[in-house]
Amino acid sequence: MKPASTFHPSFRSGNIVRLRITFLSGLLIVWLVCLLWPTRPSATVPPPPVVVRGVETVRPAPVAPTARAGARPEAIPSNDLPALILARLRAWDDDDNPALRAARIQELDRLVSNADPFEILQALPSNLTGYALALPSLRQKLMSDPPAALNWMSSHPNAQSQLLTLLHDWPQTNREAMQQFLSSLPEGSWREKVISTAANEALSTDPVAAITLAIQMQPGPQQTAWLEMAVKDWAQSDPDGAYQWASQVTDPGLREQFIGSLAVGAANADPSPAADFAVRALPPGSALNGSVSEIVWTWALQDPAGAGAWLSQLPDGDLRQAALASLLNVWGNHDAEAATAWVEEMPPGPGQIQAARQLLSALPAQPSR
Q1: For residue 69, with 0-12 CB atoms within 10 Å meaning exposed, 13-18 middle and 19 or more buried, which class applies?
Q2: Whole-Å CA distances, 151 to 8, 74, 145, 147, 163
């Protein structure tokens, strides 16, 4: 009898064939299932590859999606604009990065263009109004209604630069309307501030308008100072017109001050006739002494010898001493040798001694050895 473990060769080969067929059939079924099974897109994006830095592995931060080119900006409800602008300005104030400034101005300018400027400004704390008032759209809106803008500025003292801009631009569009509005302002510190600022803005371009504005101020030292500056500037272009106005001032003391100021202003063009005019037009006193002193100072910067020759003709007294002090203060600091020679050529006497003392006090201090 053959052992149980011994099989006929034909039986063994048949079993092997059947096993191979069964194995292949299983593979075919698996392949068909994979092919026909419905696929679904992945809900998550696989993480980016890990970047190795030395011995530390760092996974790159996810990149925010970018807006489509040409896409419209998201519409913002108007009732949310004040809060949104406030948030943007606070971020700006926390980190005023120069690299971000242009983009921030552009974004805020777009937001402000759709808003009521006074509603926006009213919602801002004082430390942020400067940022908001730097926006072109907001400045343009304020200039479209100057009276309303001035009324708003009256309760916001930190808007000084915007007040200057407003009072500089307003006369270029309607000077008469501005002057009428300013004259209607109620008495008080705000009115004085606005009118003095407007007069200051007009000084360099229209001194006559500056005088018209300064006259509306409360009488006092501040008004007098503005009028003196205005008439001095006026005399540089129209000394006859400035004198005609100054000579009509009813207060004798103010009239002398203004005539002295216009003589000083005229000296910038030609000091010699300005000095002669001051001596003829003003009585002896502080106004004459102060005017001649300033004229000689201006003259000494241009022609000290000529100024010296002119004051040498003055009689001894306060006027001559005031002129001499101005001359030697300028001359001694610019050309001490020439000034010393001029004093030495003076006639001996008290006048020469006084001039020498004045020159000695004007000379630059010598370094100690």
Answers
A1: exposed
A2: 118, 34, 10, 6, 11
Query: CA 90 to CA 128: how far, in whole Å?
Result: 7
Measure the CA–CA gap between 214 and 185, rounded to whole angstroms. Answer: 14
Q: What percent of the chain stands above pLDDT 70?
A: 76
**Six-digit token string for 169:** 């631009």
In b/e form, how buried is each residue of 336-354, taking b as 16+ CB within 10 angstroms?
Answer: eeebbebbeebeeeebeeb
Give the position of tokens 């519409």.
Answer: 75
Report pLDDT for 118. 76
Q: Which residues pair with 56 in a beta bridge?
A: 53
In whole angstroms, what is the distance from residue 115 CA to residue 120 CA?
7
Pairs from 184-193 (Cβ < 8 Å, separation ≥ 24): 187/218, 190/154, 192/217, 192/218, 192/222, 193/163
- Per-residue pLDDT tens over the stretch 67-123: 333 334 444 444 577 788 888 888 888 888 889 888 888 888 888 887 787 777 777
Tokens of 189: 């510190």
The CA distance from 182 to 151, in Å, is: 11
**Tokens standing for residue 95:** 């980190």
C-alpha torsion sign, points 318, 324, 327, 328: negative
- Domain locations in the chain? 79-144, 251-369
Which residues is 57 bridged to in the sheet?
52
| Segment 214-225, tens digit of pLDDT | 999 999 999 999
Residue among 92, 147, 149, 159 at smallest CA distance from 116? 149
Comparing CA positions, the residue from 191, 245, 247, 175 lying closest to residue 223 is 191
Q: Smallest Cα–Cα separation from 165: which of 135, 187, 190?
A: 135
Instruction: Classify strands 56-58 and 51-53 as parallel, antiparallel or unpaired.
Output: antiparallel
One DSSP character per residue, 94-137 reads: H---HHHHHHHHHHHHHHHTTS-HHHHHHTS-GGGHHHHTTSHH
